[in-house]
Amino acid sequence: MIEKSNSTNYLWGHSRRFNAYSNYMQKKFGKRIQKVSLDCGMTCPNRDGTIGTGGCHYCNNDGFNPAYCNSNNSIYQQIEDGIFFLSQRYRADEYLAYFQTYSNTYAEISRLEKIYNDALSHPKIRGLVIGTRPDCINEDILDLLEKLAETKEIYIEYGIESCYNKTLQSINRGHDFETSVMTIERTAKRKNINICAHLIFGLPGESREQMLNEAEIISKLPLNSIKLHQLQIIRNTFFEKLFIKDPSYFNIFTLEEYLDFIIDFLERINPKFIVERLFSEAPPRHVISHVWGKLRNDDVIRRVEKRMTERDTWQGKYFRT
Ligand code: SF4
To answer: Domains (ranges, CATH) in the chain?
Structure first.
């Protein structure tokens, strides 16, 4: 059992019961850094026919972009529009350019170089966050990211989604878990590239025990951070069709079930991992499985932390080194 370091502070240096991203960023930069989403008009090999055409069974990236994100505009213009939009809601000092939808390393290296540099040329952009698939990376791209990381903050997000190949096959993911491990290990050999992994809980066929076991599996990987999601059934996906036909095929987490599950998961995860996200945040109008009432994201986080206090537990309590 990993003990907390003293009565008020945990291993990550503050009193919150998990290694929260917002605290990490505040400590690292000493100011508020906000992500500004960009759409550079990418697709993904699981949609354009290279690997598949239907995409992952849960995926619908369309319509998720914030209103200010328009792939017809230049990257610089999108940043300007995004900063204007965000500045009305948050007081951020600097921003990270967030390439979020589809696979944002899936292009010729010359195009990637231009897109990334366009974003970094904006004076308020401190670095890049690049979401992609583990099979959309090569040494040339890693060379480019490592070079950019000499002067800017570079974060790459890989969609692992599940550690089980049977699940990855059944959701039409188009790559296996070994590819995720290999890519993460290759990336970790490069200097100053921060690596985040996404996992989805509640994919059909996985038991609670298997999902909890993923904490142990990914804790061994050289990751900096994790993003955790509960499965939601999104409109215009293959899963929507299945859900309408037979909802019993899915085990959709209720809020109460998820609170206890995610705390059990956090107890087992490497305490060094920064937790960037604890649950999915798809806009309710896109979700056909039940949503958790009208709770705001902050409310859900508060409930997680309240229950962690009630259980007197913390991230990594049962992490085994
Ligand atoms: S989840 Fe990602 S990899 Fe899968 S279809 Fe959607 S964009 Fe492609």
So the answer is: 21-310 (3.80.30.20)
* Binding site membership of 59 for ligand 1 (Cβ less than 6 Å): yes
Q: Which tens digits make up the pLDDT trace of 53-85?
A: 889 999 997 757 787 888 889 999 999 999 999
Task: Give, in degrees to the nearest 5, the angle at Cα 98 between 17 and 106.
Answer: 120
For ligand 1, atom 4, the nearest C-alpha belongs to 56
Buried b / exposed e along 204-235 (16+ C-beta atoms within 10 A): eebeeebbbbbbeebbebebbbbbbbbbbbbe
3 CA from centroid of ligand 1 (Å): 39
What pLDDT is attached to residue 284?
A: 84
Any atom of ligand 1 within 6 Å of the Cβ of 42? no
What average pLDDT does this structure show over 3-8? 59
Residue 132, number of CB atoms within 10 A of its CB: 21
